[in-house]
Amino acid sequence: MTETLAPEIDSRDPASFPWSVFHRRHPVLIERVATAFPRPAAQRAALDTLLTESTSGVVTAPDVEALRHEPWPWWRPEYRGVPWGETPFLWAESYFYRRILDAVEFYRPGPWRGIDPFGPTKAAELAGDAVDEEMAALDTLAPDETWDALVRSSLWGNRADLSFRAGPSAGSGTGGLIVDESAEFRALLHDRPPGQAHLIADNAGQELLPDLVLLDHLLGAGLATSVVLHVKPHPYYVSDATPADVLATVARLAAADGRARTIGERLGESLRDGRLELRAHEFFCGPLTYHAMPVDLRAQFAQAALTIVKGDLNYRRLVGDRLWHPTAPFAELTAHFPGPLVALRTLKCDVAVGLTEATVETLDATGKPWRTTGEYAVVQTRS
Ligand SMILES: O=P(O)(O)OC[C@H]1O[C@](O)(CO)[C@@H](O)[C@@H]1O
């Protein structure tokens, strides 16, 4: 069934979800980036130009000056002059975010260099009540419910993705788990000798916090000898976690009360002694699927006891950003990935695989969108 590749997703159809990302979410996002700091007029103009180009124009080449300071090896000259919607969605979104960085002079030597355009929103989320509540909840966990609770909050933390606040399709209720291989996930860690566990992070804030707590648990419970946290080397999609976000989150935990503080302090210790290692490979900010992982990164996952793959974008990169039949086998589509893995993902785009026919029928029968709202989630494993 999966021997032939399903069509790659693009954003040309105005009735499609990817089209709404470019035409409904991005205007809100650009406005937020433009106004979060008092930017000079040239940056505002560059952001507006990007929005116009990506919604009603054609792809233009990256800024040469910006490339001198930070290359973008994924530029495709054959897309120059092509309407954005006709290029693959995965590539187009990635290029859009690179162009935001160029518009705000993120790489250009000068006062704006290195200032995260999404920083204010991420900081507000980290400082917010929801994070306080998440941390306070840690004190209420009985030992026998810890594992399930930590997995649940790492999984549903993915739903908090800030890009959802920039769009109309954010669902309010929680649809639930439509593939639940939590038991297999548990077995991969509990029923095998501990080794090095890796986690490919997604968003900062309400997602990264439970991810860090989960990693701390793996170390503390002897389920991993060491853990590696992979984050983006620089800002990428709107709420993606960077090394600075990890440090801010650890500090937030350590400044809290109760169990959160203990965890934050312990995470700090683990960073110092190397049991928790932070890595930030450039590939994570690229528009390619994990089939095209460079050898050095592949080697890292090949020796991992388990890799936890977080979120929607990582999932698209894992199985391929294609209109697969939703019953296409997850194990087959992820066979290319070196080593055992678990995907923790809330569904926020058209890609869905590994479902049963019965589940698909039930979801379709609701008559409501289920692939893109973040209301449904999967825990899928491949050993
Ligand atoms: O933060 P996550 O879970 O990777 O979600 C990001 C998702 O948001 C979008 O950028 C827009 O909704 C999707 O295209 C993308 O897959």
From TrEMBL:
Keywords: Hydrolase, Manganese, Metal-binding. One of its GO terms (molecular function) is phosphatase activity. GO terms for biological process: DNA damage response. It catalyses: beta-D-fructose 1-phosphate + H2O = D-fructose + phosphate; beta-D-fructose 6-phosphate = dihydroxyacetone + D-glyceraldehyde 3-phosphate. It comes from the Bacteria. The keyword Hydrolase applies. Its cofactor is Mn(2+). Pfam families: ARMT1-like_dom (PF01937). Residues 22-359 form the Damage-control phosphatase ARMT1-like metal-binding domain. PANTHER family: DAMAGE-CONTROL PHOSPHATASE ARMT1. Belongs to the damage-control phosphatase family. Sugar phosphate phosphatase III subfamily. This is Damage-control phosphatase ARMT1-like metal-binding domain-containing protein. It comes from Cryptosporangium aurantiacum.
